[in-house]
What we know:
2 domains; disordered N terminus; globular; alpha+beta; single chain; 4-stranded antiparallel β-sheet; two-stranded antiparallel ribbon; 10 helices
Amino acid sequence: MADAIQPGGVESENHPWKIRLVDHPPRxxxxxxxxxxxxxxxxxxxxxxxxxxxGPRPAGAEHWEMHHxxxxxxxxxxxxxxxxxxxGIEWSMQxxxxxxxxxxxxxxxxxxxxAFPLTVPALAELGYEEAEDLLRAPVKDADGVEAWTDSLxxxxxxxxxxxxQAILPKVPPGEHHYPWPVKAAxxxxxxxxxxxxxxxxxxxxAVAPVDRRGSGDGHVRLAFVPEGSEAAxxxxxxxxxxxxxxxxxxxxxxxxxxxxxxxxxxGTASGPPAG
Length: 275
């Protein structure tokens, strides 16, 4: 029987593991995805800037990146809107997707679209005549999973490259690399609040205020730190105990988070916003 690990002791394993870096299989765009992207860009061309779901319009239509994030497009009396599905199916994840579970997503989408009866005829006018079949045909096998994964109702969340794939310290960071409960704040935060900050050890994470705007409280709560950060264990312990990991108003992190609200030269993030 192996000796028990004592506090402060060292734990090791006798079986090293290896990871190989190999080339991707050729990534191709299916006919389903090409059709979905074409109609999504037509829809985006009809939308006013203020109605776009995630940030400003890129410089040109070719700069939109389509994220497989569960894109439920519908048309109502005020025009096009996009809702998010319960889950989105990333392209590579289709190969572990259970058709029965994907079919539940199809049923959800069909119920939503049925509440917006202008949708299917409008999509047909834009050349996406397959919408009706996608919504009505049960997903039973891998072919059905592929068709749904690359359809307008999954594959066309329109994002800039940054919001889609960027990695900190690039701003904004992308949905592929950061937890959605934190990344989602990029789309609803005040423009002058810096969500993504540099931590004392040089890694990058995310913070949130601990009280409403105008409260004068400059403390910030750690919302995300990368694995390997010196703050990672502290954040994990706080979550385990049901507590918050909070940095003081005088910390460089809090000062960075509130810098655009408070202006330069202040030694604390507490107090009313400048101006």
